[in-house]
Amino acid sequence: MTFEEYTLDAMRSSAVERQLGIVGEAVAQVLKLEPDAPLGAARQIGAPVGARTTPMDSGVPQTSRYGAL
Q1: DSSP letter, residue 63
Q2: What is the pTM of this model?
């Protein structure tokens, strides 16, 4: 699958975005609980890891480039 095909496949790209959001939330929680955790790459990424301001399971509608998830 090319990147162009991926970006045109709303269901697939939405699923990937959701999974990355879940991973990002998990990394953010680990860093809160264990600030010295060996996750140097997560710190280099910075804002994208902690960019979500509401948890996905908070009941607050989430949005992506396709609208509400």
Answers
A1: E
A2: 0.54
* DSSP type of residue 9: -
* pLDDT tens string 36-59: 888 767 766 654 444 444 455 555
Distance (Å, whole) CA 15 – CA 19: 6
Q: How far is Cα 47 from Cα 64, in angstroms, rounded to an integer? A: 17
Bridge-partner residues for 64, per DSSP?
67
Q: At 67, give phi and psi (nearest 5°).
A: 100, -155
Vertex 50: Cα angle to 47 and 2 (nearest 5): 70
Contact 17, 62 (CB under 8 A): no
Alpha helix segments (H runs only) across 1-69: 3-8, 10-33, 40-45, 47-50
